[in-house]
Amino acid sequence: MQLQGQVALVTGAGRGIGKAIALRFAREGADIAVVELNGEWAQTTGEEIKRLGRRVFVKTADVSDYEQIQATVGEAATALGKLDILVNNDGIGKGQRFLEISKENWERHLNIHLSGTFYCAQAAAREMVKQKYGRIVNIASVAGLMGPIDLAPYGAAKAGIMGLTRAAALDLADYGITVNAIAPGPIDTELLRTWPADALRERAQHLPVARLGTVEEIAHAALFLASPDSGFINGAVLVVDGGSVAAGAYMVEKYRRRKAGA
Ligand SMILES: NC(=O)c1ccc[n+]([C@@H]2O[C@H](COP(=O)([O-])OP(=O)(O)OC[C@H]3O[C@@H](n4cnc5c(N)ncnc54)[C@H](O)[C@@H]3O)[C@@H](O)[C@H]2O)c1
Fold first, then answer.
1. DSSP E strand stretches across the chain
2. Which of 47, 121, 123, 161 could form a Cys-Cys staple with 73, CB 3.0–4.6 A?
3. What is the CATH number of the domain that holds 101?
4. What is the pLDDT along the chain (262 residues), one digit of tens a residue?
5. Which of 189, 190, 237 has most ligand 1 atoms within 8 Å of CB, for mutation?
6. What angle do CA 198, 108, 162 make, to 5 degrees?
7. Could you tell me if residue 1 is inside a domain?
8. Domain presence at residue 2
9. Domain for residue 204, yes or no?
10. Total of domains in the chain
């Protein structure tokens, strides 16, 4: 029970990584605010959290809408009494070749990932300063560390989240708030399952661990950064990717060939 008596707000908690984080935190004793674009998914996560015996606040909201987020974060803190933890998890990922990237696709990624993370972090920090304690965990991606193919808006937004993480970590340290990011590698979620099956299989083969990650593995990392014991970790990016960034493209190819006996 690492989060006994704490309150956590998780964005995009309707499915995938966000839902796994919300449920893991609830099992560790936290009351949860579920903020999610899809109302039905949000309700389902809320019911599951209630069944774990925790209090829950459910709100259908779009993180890229500044006014909605100001109101939602305030309502969540009022309903659950305070706010200790924010996980900026929600996200989208629409591939497009660089020469064909539309202005709309570019802006949507930047608005949801980068502006949404800032809006939620600022609103949450305004609650956290009242108690001089807080943990903010931003879900970035290895796509912000390595050039993703046909995903320039996504990669740029995720790199931006890492920059925002470092800046916010400095600005909020005086208030007892830490800000860190997680950079997941490919994780088996519905978002990734939109890829063609052979592309998914190949992606897994390019990881030293030779498999996709699980949502529970990201929830585990989020719990580590969100726990009271992690107060000395600030402005860090925790890569949780089965070793792909560490290996780099050349080493991974060598590894693959060695495994194949070539
Ligand atoms: N799955 C992966 O391989 C992977 C890898 C690296 C990083 N990530 C990141 O992890 C996060 C979660 O990814 P996932 O795979 O669980 O995706 P997912 O599509 O399964 O879940 C994302 C959730 O966010 C919600 N959402 C989308 N836009 C929103 C908005 N504007 N406001 C509020 N909620 C919104 C969706 O409705 C959905 O419930 C994303 O930020 C993603 O970029 C995922």
1. 7-11, 31-36, 56-60, 85-88, 134-139, 177-184, 237-240
2. 123
3. 3.40.50.720
4. 999 999 999 999 999 999 999 999 999 999 999 999 999 999 999 999 999 999 999 999 999 999 999 999 999 999 999 999 999 999 999 899 999 999 999 999 999 999 999 999 999 999 999 999 999 999 999 999 998 889 999 999 999 999 999 999 999 999 999 999 999 999 999 988 888 888 888 888 888 898 999 999 999 999 999 999 999 999 999 999 999 899 886 666 776 777 777 6
5. 189
6. 80
7. no
8. no
9. yes
10. 1
The rounded Å distance from CA 192 to ligand 1 centre is: 10
CA distance 218 to 42: 19
Owning domain of residue 142: 7-259
Distances in Å between the alpha carbon of 92 and those of 52, 55, 116, 130? 28, 28, 12, 32
Among candidate residues 66, 133, 154, 175, the one labeled active-site is 154
86 in the Ramachandran plot: left (φ > 0), alpha (ψ -120 to 50) or beta? beta
Residue 121 lies in a domain: yes
C-alpha span between 34 and 79 (Å, rounded): 12
